[in-house]
Write a structure and sequence with these properties.
Elements lengths: L6 E4 L3 H5 L7 E2 L9 H5 L5 E5 L3 H12 L4 E6 H9 L1
Parallel strand pairs: 1-2, 1-3, 3-4
């Protein structure tokens, strides 16, 4: 994550995000991703979506993969953070 060769989008609610999140991630709640698709598509790719468990980020990943965006489901934001620290 330090080299910023990708973007991390956390699709949890704002209140979940404010309770703890990955440094440098962007919070775009799942219910807003369709309306903010242009903003998301403009981010540095690949885009790693994360949430609490991987369910919501999986939905966002499927949506953007169908649009041709280079992205992946990172699962839980805690897992993404752990992988970053390795």
């Amino acid at each position: 994550m330090e080299n910023k060769d990708f973007s991390v989008v956390d699709v949890r609610t704002r209140s979940e995000y404010s309770g703890g999140h990955l440094a440098g991630s962007i919070n775009i709640p799942l219910q807003e991703v369709v309306d903010r698709a242009e903003e998301i598509c403009a981010l540095k790719q690949p885009i790693i979506f994360c949430c609490a468990s991987g369910g919501r980020s999986g939905q966002a990943t499927a949506y953007f993969k169908a649009k041709g965006v280079n992205c992946e489901n990172g699962g839980s934001w805690l897992d993404v953070n752990f992988k970053r620290l390795k």
